[in-house]
């Protein structure tokens, strides 16, 4: 099938004239700025934040470009990956008409964003081994299906989705395939960013919230064709990424070696935690993980969760999530935190 972005973009977005901010109309350096109605006297902080930030976060994109091997023109930066997800719905899906496909169990914001934007959801559950049901997805696609969301490594299951299955969708679906790689830094599978030149209908989401440890800054990334990124930039608010987040993200991106070292420690701790948890009789299964968390099937997820809350230890109860009955999700902590968890569980009784 031949993908054509004009066939899926909303008509009102095609005609949209984006807001032109003061920083869009003038780029460069000047000695006096009297164009943006800012407070020229400064801000009541140690560092001045009285000027509007770079609307396109060019410096951050340039640094990311060096790390990811992708030109800045193929990068969108937003207020967390959730902003990118919302822009996808607002740009490509007509409310009350179009639909998207999700593959539960998966990240919950796809459904929330669809509901906010009045877009129908089609659910095609993962198989029992948490892989794509390609036949089910093919049967669910209709003329109003605009996007398929795939989280890989998947949240909450932790496993990576088979690459060849995603490639099958990319090659045969005449809409957007959105691959959410929030946990890709912990995975043995390579990023789909490398396939952007191969598939014009591919959108890859990543974040600085996980391996990079910047959850509080809310820095999300989308990687896609230049055409798709231009639409993102057209629809986004003029200053969607604040100056403080841009500055701190730029500083963090200079420390790749530190992040890689942390990833090694997290993976080692993950293996150690899995080994220890397997020794508890209330643990029925621990699913393979390519993320910084593990999904653990227990004899009574509610009891495990409530017991740990009483001990001041918070994990995620996934018992009510389809295909995750009896499961809890445990983030990999520091050695001390993981030890506190396992010591507490020694006293747990069903």
TrEMBL record:
Organism the protein comes from: Pseudopedobacter saltans (strain ATCC 51119 / DSM 12145 / JCM 21818 / CCUG 39354 / LMG 10337 / NBRC 100064 / NCIMB 13643) (Pedobacter saltans)
E.C. number: 2.6.1.9
Family: Belongs to the class-II pyridoxal-phosphate-dependent aminotransferase family. Histidinol-phosphate aminotransferase subfamily.
Protein name (record): Histidinol-phosphate aminotransferase
NCBIfam families in the record: hisC
SUBUNIT field: Homodimer.
Record domain Aminotransferase class I/classII large: where: 47-345
Functional pathway: Amino-acid biosynthesis; L-histidine biosynthesis; L-histidine from 5-phospho-alpha-D-ribose 1-diphosphate: step 7/9; Lipid metabolism
Cofactor(s) this protein requires: pyridoxal 5'-phosphate
Gene Ontology biological-process entries: L-histidine biosynthetic process
Alphabetical list of SUPFAM superfamilies matching this protein: PLP-dependent transferases
A GO MF term: histidinol-phosphate transaminase activity
Keywords, alphabetical: Amino-acid biosynthesis, Aminotransferase, Histidine biosynthesis, Pyridoxal phosphate, Transferase
PROSITE patterns per UniProt: AA_TRANSFER_CLASS_2
Catalytic activity: L-histidinol phosphate + 2-oxoglutarate = 3-(imidazol-4-yl)-2-oxopropyl phosphate + L-glutamate
Residues recorded with modification N6-(pyridoxal phosphate)lysine: 210
Gene3D superfamilies according to UniProt: Aspartate Aminotransferase, domain 1, Type I PLP-dependent aspartate aminotransferase-like (Major domain)
Superkingdom field: Bacteria
